[in-house]
Each structure stands twice: as C-alpha cells, then as structure tokens.
Amino acid sequence: MQTLTVTAKGQITVKKEVLKHLGVKPGDKILLDLAPDGNVVLKAAPQKRHGIEAIFGILHDPDQAPVTIEEMNKVIADAWAGRR
C-alpha cells in the first residue's frame, strides 16, 4: 500500500510504479471509480487508436465464433447473385 499526499489544491501525485502497473504514459487517461464502501478504484482508460489501428477489433464479438473464409465467400456469392 502506498501513501499519497493531498496538496492544498486537492491534487495528488501518483507514483511512477503505479502508472507503470496501469500501463499508462503521459497524455493517457485514468478512470477513477468511487466504490460504495468508500474505496476508490483506478483503471487505465481505453486508449483511442488512430489511423488504420482504429478499425482493428471493432467487429469482434467474444460470444460468437469467428466466420470462416468459406462462410464469407458464400455470403459474397449470395449477395452478387441477388439472394441476400
């Protein structure tokens, strides 16, 4: 457990090892959640991706099996044939 000091402005400084543990770096965001028991939970906020990286995983559904190449080709063929 670490002790942090609150400044007169109500601010705290989080130590480097905590930031490293969260995987955050300068410019990243941190989420703070106030738990009903009086505790606070810190999490690294999801990072926004830029460029081509922004589309990776946008259609991923962990509850659905991946579509095979054969299934993709069938859907494409059906669409071209006007069956879909």
Portion of residues within helices? 10-25%
**Total number of helices:** 2
Report strand order across the widest sheet: 1-2
Gyration radius from CA atoms, angstroms: 23 Å
Mean pLDDT metric: 86
Would you count the extended β strands for me? 2
By helix and strand content, what is the structural category?
alpha+beta
Order of helices and strands: HEEH
- Unreliable stretches: none
- N- to C-terminal distance: 59 Å
**Main sheet attributes: strand count, strand direction, barrel closure:** 2 strands, antiparallel
Envelope shape:
elongated
Provide the β-strand percentage band.
5-15%
Keywords:
two-stranded antiparallel ribbon; alpha+beta; elongated; 84 residues; 2 strands
Concise account of the structure shown:
The protein is α+β, with helices and mostly antiparallel strands and 84 residues long. The chain has helices at 16-22, 69-80; strands at 30-34, 40-44.
Structure report:
The chain is an alpha+beta fold. It has one domain (16-80). 23% of the residues lie in helices and 12% in strands. The chain has two helices and two strands; from the N terminus they run αββα. A two-stranded antiparallel sheet has the order 1-2. A hairpin with a 5-residue loop joins strand 1 and strand 2 (40-44). The termini are far apart.
